[in-house]
Amino acid sequence: MSQKKPTPRRLGSLVSSIPALRWAKAWKTSVGPVIYQKLECLGIERGVLQLYVKDPVWRQELFYQRDVILKKFQAALTAEGFAAHEIPRSCSFVTKPTTQPFKSRNPKFR
Questions:
Q1: Between vectors from CA 32 to CA 9 and to CA 89, what angle results, nearest 5°?
Q2: Is residue 72 part of a domain?
Q3: What is the pLDDT of residues 59-89, one digit of tens each?
Q4: Is residue 102 part of a domain?
Q5: Do residues 94 and 48 lie in contact, with contact meaning Cβ atoms separated by under 8 Å?
Q6: Taking the CB of residue 69, how many other CB atoms lie within 10 A of it?
Q7: What residue numbers bound the domain in which 92 lies?
Q8: pLDDT at 101
Q9: Is a pLDDT exceeding 80 seen at residue 55?
Q10: In a domain, 18, yes or no
């Protein structure tokens, strides 16, 4: 009995089958190259897109553009084939959690 060899798939089709990569691609194309460098998408929590901007000036400007950014991202996710429950309904700007442990100024507690 002969076994069929699996047909090779193009790398592009493999990448497009991974949801996280499709999501990242939709994010990058929806915000554009300039905003992509300034705005970090942390993820979606309870239907809210969590965004982080380090620079307060950019944060203020992007806060006023949040509805436009969200609509473009929603359209890009829909085009990528994501289900309605996987698409964020709103967005918020959050403070990125620190990766360094807290250090007390009091020498007694160091």
A1: 85
A2: yes
A3: 889 889 999 999 999 999 999 888 888 889 9
A4: no
A5: no
A6: 20
A7: 42-97
A8: 53
A9: yes
A10: no
DSSP for the chain, written as a single string: -PPPPPPP--HHHHHHT-HHHHHHHHHHHHHHHHHHHHEEEEEEETTEEEEEESSHHHHHHHHHTHHHHHHHHHHHHHHTT--GGGS-SEEEE-PPPPSSPP--SSGGG-
Q: For 10-51, how does the pLDDT look when each residue is reduced to its tens digit (9 = 90+)?
A: 555 555 557 778 888 888 888 889 988 888 888 888 888 888
What pTM does this model have? Answer: 0.68
In one letter, which amino acid is 20? A
In a domain, 32, yes or no: no
Cα–Cα distance for residue pair 75/92, rounded to 1 Å: 18
Number of domains, the chain? 1
Residues in the chain: 110
